[in-house]
């Protein structure tokens, strides 16, 4: 009896302890998580660094001054210490986030979250980001500046990791149940690969091939032209090309792979370039500013997440002093300013990812047909460790073009868009290792020549680098490694056996489009076409829609005596250029329908001031209707939804042009109604009715409150790892995809910056929708979101020296080396 | 007495050792100091409840409850009923329950062990 009593109580005690110390299904180890001595309770609050810190690896004393927004201002005496401190400080605030990006890019998420990430992992691994990052990391020589910077930064991150105990580990590790790994230069390169994928990792090639096969070249030319009807290109029309172009490869007789047979026909592809991934930047010259010196603005639009993709820092040594937004995991400042210059980036939408149809000799896929002979395939086995499961092996086949993304139709594709049996050629695989040096030199640049020199180091993903300095120079350069293509090369799936379809080289870097001090007195970009068609090289057939660029350019054109505030108001401009273009015509058509006379939605639209302001009803009706209309016009002809042969809808630009100039085009007839031929007017009216009906079904009868644009759009800033409760939902704001204030449901201005150059000391403003701390329990986790939603900016504290006095300084940490 | 000893020893031990160190501590104290089965259980459970609640209260108040809000949001996404109770109530209860069960049964096991070998 005594034994049973003992045995039962011991069993319960030991069993409970054991169970509570292990993850239970989706639940983390509860004992560990709830214990106040090491669990989540330990992560709350603003955890500030001590006044004194001793770290092995620091050579001379480093001062870190934290301001009231938790921005670290680092004053080091040499570069090694500077980047060491940067690594340490970023890790202190963003460790989980930076490692998460690298796990995703290298296809290792399943190791921590289990089987549900395996398709994403396989996709990312096949895309070859880990392989490319590894090769780049190995390519550095010991004396390379980039290598020294990477090594110092890595040492800083690892110094932070070394003193980290479980109770101080970021709460996400505790919840998901894993431990941080050592950092390495390879992981920093993975961060850059991640940006290559986000910004350059989409393709419509296979959709275009399907459309070409169905409709032939003439219709494609008509509906998918190589330049839009309305455009306001980045390099102003009329800018002279001051170079002698190199010969462009001749257009081959066949510009696309032959249509696929039924067996191989496939139609799954990688995601089309995301329209929300875009950005704005511009600089006005001294002639347009109140101060007589340039003002520069930038707002990169990315997926909005908490923690935010950006981290603010000031980095200072005796030879450099720079402030700006940094990418966690990456040394240096990515977008920012120093005493003399300011720079910013937006993405270049050129076509840098192509797909090649591969003809294998047999099922083993060991050889493929190229240039009249069989060429061997390189086979690589990838292993995936999966949490709670056995490891999985996957064979990846590499051709000289690049990896074959998926090879069997039956395979479950993560992304619905990958052409099966197709090899990918992607600028993201380029092994140039100098991207970091582009930023390294921009951080130190003093004038236009330094800017131009810095750009020569930067390769991918190509960016529109805007520039302004206090010598009154402004400039913009779509810059990066751009393939030298024949016209329309890669608009469709290419023939992997035809050498003429290979990429033939690169546009000489110095011939990338650029403009300095244009007569109009400002430069700008919003991801639209880099140039008009007079540029001697083919960059791609589709860039971001022109509306943001058009609006920015007309605002800046009209602007005189610009101030920081006037540029801030452009960043927050909610005017809907598309509505201005089409609404008058559309309203006329809708007015023909007598039912609309008493339709409150029609009246709301007719009265709308064409601004996507948060509490307007007009944008709700307009934006939803535009979406609906394109489905009504195009889905029967160019089905996006089709499982078998998905295509793309022609652009909004083409749709509006058709409505205005070719209203009797056959495309307006709905092929699904056999006994009826719809006119353009029918489609406009019926799609409008359908839109209002579905809005009413969802939101009730029209009401200024429930139909308000901000409510319907409902911008969410979710946690990067999608942990419920760790994000911020329903942010009150206006804007939209084609609006300068490009805040959509999930994407938007991820950092807003305005810098006024000055002969003595610049004045700068900026913020991002998040906070400096990556810790969800910190008051600095999301403290900038409300201000961001209102369109306000923070004044940035840009210190001249570490001894400068400011009432915004909260604390100072002195870091010294271990003797 | 066992209550105080478990409370003090496990407070110090948990600063350096993992949370489950409360189990062996409660076991040993239950074995050496407890006079009855019920007494050992309540000493073990009570000590850990007191200690954990006091420390968690301190941490939660000094961080304005920000972390608890997040954790509450996380758990109540799938356990909807948690939305209807203040997180302070539900999460302190869950924590107290975890600590009480482990501390209580460990101390009881210790006491029973002594009865067995006595």
TrEMBL record, chain A:
It comes from the Bacteria. This is Penicillin acylase family protein. CDD domains: Ntn_PGA_like (cd03747). The keyword Calcium applies. Binds 1 Ca(2+) ion per dimer. It comes from Emticicia agri. Belongs to the peptidase S45 family. The active site is at 279 (nucleophile). Keywords: Calcium, Hydrolase, Metal-binding, Zymogen. The keyword Lipid metabolism does not apply. GO terms for biological process: antibiotic biosynthetic process. Ca(2+) binds at residues 351, 354. Its cofactor is Ca(2+). InterPro entries: Ntn_hydrolases_N (IPR029055), Pen/GL7ACA/AHL_acylase (IPR014395), Penicillin_amidase_A-knob (IPR043147), Penicillin_amidase_dom1 (IPR023343), Penicillin_amidase_N_B-knob (IPR043146), S45 (IPR002692). One of its GO terms (molecular function) is metal ion binding.
Automatic annotation (TrEMBL), chain B:
The keyword Membrane applies. Keywords: Membrane, Transmembrane, Transmembrane helix. It comes from the Bacteria. The chain crosses the membrane at residues 6-29, 41-61, 89-111. This is Uncharacterized protein. The lineage of its organism: Bacteria, Pseudomonadati, Bacteroidota, Cytophagia, Cytophagales.
């Amino acid at each position: 009896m005594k034994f049973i009593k003992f045995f039962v109580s011991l069993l319960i005690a030991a069993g409970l302890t054991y169970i509570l110390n292990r993850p239970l299904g989706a639940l983390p180890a509860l004992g560990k998580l709830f214990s106040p001595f090491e669990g989540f309770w330990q992560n709350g609050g603003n955890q500030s660094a001590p006044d004194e810190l001793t770290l092995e690896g620091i050579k001379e004393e480093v001062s870190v001054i934290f301001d009231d927004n938790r921005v670290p201002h680092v004053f080091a005496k040499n570069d090694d210490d500077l980047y060491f401190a940067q690594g340490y400080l970023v890790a202190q605030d963003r460790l989980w986030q930076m490692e998460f990006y690298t796990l995703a890019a290298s296809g290792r998420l399943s190791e921590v979250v289990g089987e549900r990430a395996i398709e994403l992992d396989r996709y990312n691994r096949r895309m070859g980001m880990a392989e490319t990052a590894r090769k780049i990391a190995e390519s550095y020589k010991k004396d390379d500046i980039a290598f020294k910077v990477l090594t110092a930064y890595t040492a800083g991150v690892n110094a932070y990791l070394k003193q980290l105990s479980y109770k101080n580990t970021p709460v996400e590790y505790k919840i998901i149940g894993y431990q941080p790994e050592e950092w390495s230069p390879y992981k920093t390169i993975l961060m850059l690969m991640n940006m290559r994928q986000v910004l350059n990792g989409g393709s419509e090639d296979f959709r275009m091939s399907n459309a070409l096969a169905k409709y032939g070249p003439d219709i494609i030319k008509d509906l998918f032209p190589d330049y839009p009807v309305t455009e306001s290109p980045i390099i102003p029309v009329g800018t002279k090309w001051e170079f002698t172009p190199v010969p462009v490869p001749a257009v081959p007789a066949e510009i696309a792979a032959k249509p696929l047979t039924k067996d191989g026909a496939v139609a799954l592809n990688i995601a089309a370039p995301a329209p929300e991934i875009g950005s704005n930047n511009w600089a006005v010259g001294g002639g347009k500013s109140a101060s007589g010196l340039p003002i520069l603005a930038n707002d990169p639009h990315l997926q909005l997440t908490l923690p935010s993709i950006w981290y603010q820092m000031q980095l200072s040594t005796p030879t450099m002093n720079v402030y700006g937004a940094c990418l966690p995991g990456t040394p240096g400042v990515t977008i920012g300013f120093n005493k003399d210059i300011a720079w910013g980036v937006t993405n270049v939408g050129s076509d840098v990812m192509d797909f090649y149809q591969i003809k294998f000799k047999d099922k083993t896929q060991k050889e493929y047909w190229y240039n009249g002979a069989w060429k061997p395939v390189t086979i690589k086995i990838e292993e995936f460790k999966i949490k709670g499961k056995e490891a999985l092996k996957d064979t990846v086949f590499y051709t000289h073009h690049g990896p074959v993304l998926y090879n069997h139709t039956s395979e479950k594709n993560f992304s619905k868009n990958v052409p099966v049996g197709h090899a990918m050629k992607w600028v993201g695989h380029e092994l140039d290792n100098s991207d970091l040096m582009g930023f390294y030199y921009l951080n130190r640049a003093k004038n236009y020549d330094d800017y131009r020199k810095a750009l020569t180091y930067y390769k991918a993903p190509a960016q529109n680098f805007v520039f302004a300095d206090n010598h009154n120079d402004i400039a913009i350069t779509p810059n990066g490694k751009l393939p030298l293509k024949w016209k329309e090369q890669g608009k469709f799936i290419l023939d992997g056996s035809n050498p003429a379809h290979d990429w033939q080289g690169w546009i000489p870097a110095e011939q990338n489009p650029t403009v300095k001090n244009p007569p109009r007195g400002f430069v700008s970009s919003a991801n639209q076409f880099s140039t008009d068609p007079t540029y001697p090289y083919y960059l791609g057939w589709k860039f971001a829609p022109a509306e943001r660029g058009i609006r920015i350019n007309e605002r800046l054109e009209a602007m005189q005596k610009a101030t920081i505030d006037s540029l801030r108001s452009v960043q927050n401009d909610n005017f809907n250029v598309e509505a201005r273009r089409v609404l008058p015509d559309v309203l006329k058509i809708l007015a023909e329908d007598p039912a609309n006379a008493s339709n409150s939605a029609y009246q709301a639209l007719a009265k709308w001031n064409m601004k996507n302001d948060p509490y307007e009803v007009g944008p709700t009706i307009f934006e939803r209707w535009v979406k609906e209309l394109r489905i009504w016009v195009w889905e029967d002809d160019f089905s996006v939804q089709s499982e078998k042969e998905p295509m793309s809808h022609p652009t909004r630009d083409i749709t509006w042009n058709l409505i205005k100039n070719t209203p009797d085009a056959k495309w307006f007839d709905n092929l699904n109604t056999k006994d009826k031929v719809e006119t353009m007017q029918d489609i406009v009216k019926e799609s409008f009715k359908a839109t209002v009906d579905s809005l009413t079904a969802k939101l009730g009868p029209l009401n200024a409150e429930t139909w308000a644009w901000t409510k319907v759009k409902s911008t969410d800033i979710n946690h990067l790892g999608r942990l419920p409760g760790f994000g911020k939902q329903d942010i009150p704001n206006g804007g939209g995809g084609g609006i300068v204030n490009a805040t959509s449901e999930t994407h938007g201005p991820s950092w807003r910056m305005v810098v006024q150059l000055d002969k003595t000391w610049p004045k700068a403003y900026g913020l991002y929708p998040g906070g400096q701390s990556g810790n969800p329990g910190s008051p600095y986790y999301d403290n900038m979101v409300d201000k961001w939603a209102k369109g306000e900016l923070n004044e940035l504290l840009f210190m001249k020296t570490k001894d400068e006095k400011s009432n915004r300084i909260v604390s100072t940490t002195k870091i010294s080396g271990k003797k | 007495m066992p209550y105080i000893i478990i409370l003090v020893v496990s407070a110090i031990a948990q600063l350096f050792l993992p949370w489950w160190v409360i189990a062996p501590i409660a076991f040993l104290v239950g074995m050496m100091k407890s006079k009855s089965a019920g007494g050992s259980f309540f000493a073990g459970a009570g000590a850990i409840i007191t200690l954990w609640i006091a420390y968690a209260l301190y941490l939660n108040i000094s961080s304005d409850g920000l972390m608890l809000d997040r954790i509450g949001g996380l758990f109540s996404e799938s356990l909807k009923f948690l939305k209807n109770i203040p997180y302070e109530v539900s999460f302190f209860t869950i924590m107290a329950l975890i600590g009480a069960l482990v501390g209580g049964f460990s101390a009881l096991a210790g006491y029973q062990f002594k009865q067995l070998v006595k």
